[in-house]
Design goal:
The chain starts with 7 loop residues before the first strand and ends with a helix. Strands 4-3-2-1-5 form a 5-stranded antiparallel β-sheet. Strand 3 (37-40) and strand 4 form a beta hairpin. The radius of gyration is 11 Å and the shape is globular. It has one helix at 60-63, and strands at 8-11, 21-28, 37-40, 46-49, 55-58. The protein has one domain. The protein is mainly β. It contains 1 helix and 5 strands, in the order E-E-E-E-E-H.
């Protein structure tokens, strides 16, 4: 999994009825685009995440389609 600043990190819901959480990568803390990432959620709070298998990176060009 590789990301750049501005990409979206989508954490898929794990149980029925739980919505996906979407955040924006504001800092790539690993080397060559690898985790961990500092992300910002829509409500403004930030967290450091090392995404697991329930996560997906959406790059800018993927979001436009």
């Amino acid at each position: 999994m590789r990301a750049i600043v501005g990409d979206q990190l989508v954490q898929h819901g794990r149980v029925v009825g739980q919505h996906d959480q979407v955040s924006v990568v504001v800092e790539v803390m690993g080397t060559e685009g690898n985790p961990p990432y500092r992300v910002r959620f829509p409500d403004g709070h930030e967290a450091v995440m090392s995404p697991g298998p329930d996560c997906q990176i959406k790059h800018g060009d993927e979001r436009q389609h």
